[in-house]
# Entry
Amino acid sequence: MATRVSHNAYGKHRVRISKVRRPRQAPPNAERHELVEVAVDVELQGDFEAAFTHGDNRQVIATDTCKNTLYVLAKDHPIDSVESFGRAVAEHFLGRYAHVEQVDVRLVEQVWDRLAGSDHSFVAAQKMTPTAAVTHRRGESPAVVGGLERLTIAKTTESGFVDFHRDEFRTLADTTDRILATEMTAAWRYSAAEADYAAARESIVAALLERFTDHYSHSVQETLYLMAGAALAACADIGQITLTMPNKHHLLANLAPFDRENENEVFVVTDEPFGYITATVDRE
Ligand SMILES: O=c1[nH]c(=O)c2[nH]c(=O)[nH]c2[nH]1
# Structure
């Protein structure tokens, strides 16, 4: 039977790296550390087909080598943003290996917050996680996507869901006052590779949060679209944003058997099943 490889890629995933930055300062704060942690996926495409089809490994840069490379690059790079570190990783593999055609780097940051003003103790932030993805094809400029995971937000009113499609399978009642809660994932695409990633992230997150609260929501769908528009308006460097907003349901608990009226106060919080709503919004 004739077969052919129509796509291949390989690399190392979840290379977790932490780095202690020791910015030089005058005493007494000479040892005020910063802790940065990132998990990196790196994938290579290029002239690797013979390894799949002929057991010929001569072109294969071992995934172990990929991992080692990430530690070396972490030493040489300040890791001042996940986007810029991702770009450095992609540039390294393209620059070093002529048979690599495309590098895909995905990065997820673990944010460490300073603990009680200490110079060297930190507490892991449970909240929002910065992410980045860099795709760099030889001869092209890198495509840089910034993003975030686990932005968990809720509003206790100013949200409803009515007039949705009626048929014999519908049981959900209209509501004009409900809890809207989500654990958002966002990914924004930079129009040009060069940008102030940290400033962009700050203005995008601020715009997303402000828009979440500033309107009456007719649905997660509508709120998602408004938030995406606010992010595009707030940051001229991005041309597209994808938001994913699972609907973390808070269902009114039935207290009637216990002779109590539930005046929109007590809810059953369910993880599964959950509504899943996503859209990509482009600047026109
Ligand atoms: O905002 C919502 N969008 C939906 O599509 C949906 N579906 C549902 O059951 N509840 C909700 N809420």
The pocket of uric acid is lined by residues 161, 172, 219-221, 247, 275 (CB under 6 Å). Residues 10-140 form a domain with the Urate Oxidase fold (CATH 3.10.270.10).
